[in-house]
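__Record contents__

***
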Amino acid sequence: MGIMKTVACVLPMVAMPVGETSERMRRYGVGKFIPVDRYDQWKLATEEILDQGLPQALDREMARDAYDWPQVARRFIEVYDHLCRQYIGPRVGLHG
C-alpha cells in the first residue's frame, strides 16, 4: 500500500527488490533498490540520494494503469475466473 501511495504522488521509491512492484520499477528504470536483509544499506542509499538526488519516479499514467483500484480488482477477477475454469470447470467463475 505504501508503494501505491508513493507512486500516486509521483514520488521516487526506495524498496527491496521483491514482488510485482520491483519488477515494474526495473522495467521502467525508476526508484532505488536496497538488498533484502541488508538494513545497513538503507543508510548508504539515503546518503546517496542526498548526495546525488532523487531517483526517477514512475510516470503517473503507468502507475494508474498498474495500481488504480478498478484495475487491481479487474486483475483479481481475471485470476479468480482463470482458477475456477482450470480447477472446477469451464462454466464456473464470475463470468462463466
Summary: The chain has two domains: 1-58, 59-96. Residues 16 and 35 are 6 Å apart (CA to CA).
